[in-house]
Write a structure and sequence with these properties.
- The protein is an alpha/beta fold.
- It has two domains: about 150 residues, Glycogen Phosphorylase B (Rossmann fold, 3-Layer(aba) Sandwich), CATH 3.40.50; about 170 residues, Rossmann fold (3-Layer(aba) Sandwich).
- About 40% of the residues lie in helices and about 20% in strands.
- It has a six-stranded parallel β-sheet.
- The longest helix has 20 residues.
- About 40% of the residues are buried.
- Pfam families: Glycos_transf_1 (PF00534).
- This is Glycosyltransferase family 4 protein.
Length: about 350
């Protein structure tokens, strides 16, 4: 089949979405299809977003440069507004600033004006899709809650899952992610002040919150408890997963969350929160991880519990690995689902 995949490109900002987008295109090609990626330049700004919405819904992708396109697969807003009679949407997320992250008390007039336009755009174009999938139960739940549309959750694996291994724990809790407000590294740092065991917290990644988090560590006096590792290599990340006691992942309302799956592949239990969204679909509380209230005290208690019974923590990690194996997450199942008639 000749397939076009639509997604966004935000200059100089990279993340897990790139693994999702590029992984899909690579998998389609490996399965013998002609697949091309159409990335739309996405700029955060209400006027720019409105212009991109208008441009996107004017794109007719049935035939491009005298080449017939058999199917379009769209992953992100506003790419699912393109026109094609066989258009499958595999939703990573919508424009969150107009949905679950929208705060009417603090929204700018421009954002308040954009919100109903985005909602109308989504209702119209997502309803037209031949089939709708979501990359997690949480994303499907939001679509149903805000737009009244159903989508089937469809999981995909992290980048090169075969690389993740488990080794003896070195007594630390690991949290790799961009240092951004929604990832809530600050919550974990605050938890460090409430720890009663010698467990350490290693936080990897870089981002807009780096200086804020450094100042917080100093203010709380937890320099002996928390280390900000900065940007690390893939090899370092794999080693840190392998030797972790457990993995912390307490973001706010995450869409999917590779950290959870990477921890499970490394046979490490995950510590997350009740409002963390996507990760909670994969954690069995008390069996393969912890789901706590989003408070420093509750997170600290879970970290202490992981340290206090390290044998039990290792068993929970093996249970997490077994949960992952039972989900049969792989690109072959994804391709079969997306290309089914």
């Amino acid at each position: 089949m000749r397939l076009l995949v639509t997604a966004n490109h935000t200059p100089f900002i990279a993340g897990g979405a790139d693994y999702h987008v590029n992984g899909l295109v690579d998998a389609l090609r490996q399965h013998g299809h002609q697949a091309e990626l159409l990335r739309l330049p996405f700029h955060y700004g209400e006027a720019e977003i409105e212009r991109l919405m208008a441009f996107t819904e004017g794109l007719d992708l049935r035939r491009v440069n005298d080449v017939d396109i058999d199917r379009v697969i769209s992953l992100q807003f506003p790419g699912y507004g393109v026109n094609h009679p066989d258009h499958v949407v595999w939703l990573m997320h919508q424009h969150r600033a107009c949905y679950e992250l929208y705060d009417p008390n603090n929204a700018s007039p421009a954002l308040a004006a954009l919100k109903p336009k985005v909602e109308a755009y989504d209702r119209h174009h997502l309803a037209k899709a031949s089939r709708r999938y979501a990359n997690s139960p949480r994303v499907a739940e939001r679509l149903r809650e805000y737009n009244g549309l159903a989508a089937q959750p469809l999981y995909h694996p992290p980048h090169r899952p075969e690389r993740f291994t488990c080794a003896a724990d070195w007594g630390y809790i690991f949290y790799p992610s961009r240092l951004e407000p929604l990832k809530r590294q600050a919550l974990l740092i605050e938890a460090a002040a409430h720890l009663t065991t010698p467990v350490k917290l290693l936080i990897a990644g870089d981002g807009s919150q780096r200086h804020t988090l450094e100042a917080m560590i100093e203010t709380l006096g937890v320099e002996d408890r928390v280390r900000l590792l900065g940007r690390i290599s893939e090899a370092e990340k794999l080693t840190l997963y392998a030797h972790a006691l457990a993995v912390a992942f307490p973001p706010f309302d995450e869409d999917y969350g590779y950290v959870t799956l990477e921890a499970m592949l490394s046979a490490k239990p995950v510590i997350s929160c009740t409002d963390s969204g996507g990760p909670t679909a994969f954690i069995e509380p008390g069996e393969s991880g912890w789901i706590t209230s989003p408070t420093p005290e509750a997170l600290a208690a879970a970290c202490d519990a992981a340290w206090q019974d390290r044998r039990r923590t290792a068993e929970m990690g093996q249970a997490a690995r077994a949960v992952y194996a039972g989900l049969d997450i792989g690109w072959e199942a994804v391709i079969e689902t997306l290309l089914s008639s």
